[in-house]
Write a structure and sequence with these properties.
binds zinc ion, four-stranded mixed sheet, mainly alpha
Length: 373
Amino acid sequence: MKAERSIFSDSEYHEFENSFNTVVMQYGGRLNRENIHVFTKSGLNELLDYYYWLIRSAQYAPEPYNPTGKLYVDFVDSPRCNAIAFEKDNREFIGIFLGAVARIYHIFYLFMSSPKVLIEIGEAFEESVDKKRIIELHTKDPDGSWQALRPKNESRFRVAQHLAWNAMAFLFGHEIAHICRAHLKYLETEIDSTEYLEYPFTAISPQVATQLQQLELDADTAAGEVNMILWRQHIQGGTFPLLSEISPIKTWGISLALLFRILDFEEKRVRPHYHQTHPIPAVRFMQIVYEGTSEFGENLEANHAQSLGEAFRIVDAWWKESGLATYSFRSFDEDIEKTIDELDSLRSGSKELHSSLRNLTEVRNKKIRKNKV
Ligand SMILES: [Zn+2]
């Protein structure tokens, strides 16, 4: 067992692993990383180490990120672009589906393979995209082939990896929020579900869709703040020297805008006739811009809203040009009033939700503190 996973004793780790496997069996089971390609394996191991580092760090963070308790995270052996948070026997779990990792890296690689995107990085003119690889996205489930799609230029390949890695960190923070902000408990009381599956496999009512969209925005807020602070720390600390000349808010915004588009694309591709469980990318992104203004405070650049707008436009332009806007597409600037109205309506309708969440969080936290002593 890796040192990073030292929040568990050996026997505990195996118990958690077994419980995880039992619950996710219906989706494909726990991914056995021993059987996969060596590059994929080392990438997944690094992600897990980082996730466990975040869990350990969160133990020293203020609420609502603490207490996290003993949280187990692992991959699910499924080609679907999905993630799950659940509780079993008073233990908490997060599962990231292999298809989510594959699809996210795949599209970030394609994005940086465009000669028109972030031309200040590497030799952008060397890049070209095989249109076929983009068309495939509409028909093929994610698989291991993303490893072969790396941008030609080494610097651009690295930047694609950094941006995708941040998207994976955000996704994980978002799942943590579903647990720590008591969304799971809320679903248990409201719709009798013990799992928070990002993209359910069955249809849901319009009422439940609205409730889920409100929870999604809440999870984005919690994940967004921590994710942005960590991203800026990495940039300022020199972890990503290739990105040091660009505004960190802009690169952070690109990473999130592309992630929201990818998830939305997959949701609509796989379950086109269901009520959407997540707000559209423009609404999720607008919420990040809002929260950036009111909540993230001193961590901001003076012109953060402008940098975020620029980020979303870069992603939009590439998305449209690549022919990925097959499903309903709203850009950041187009119908901006409609986007703000939708966001306001979700936010203003969630006052009651937030007060239930506060109570449920208190119940959860008390239980975890009791278990710690
Ligand atoms: Zn979610």
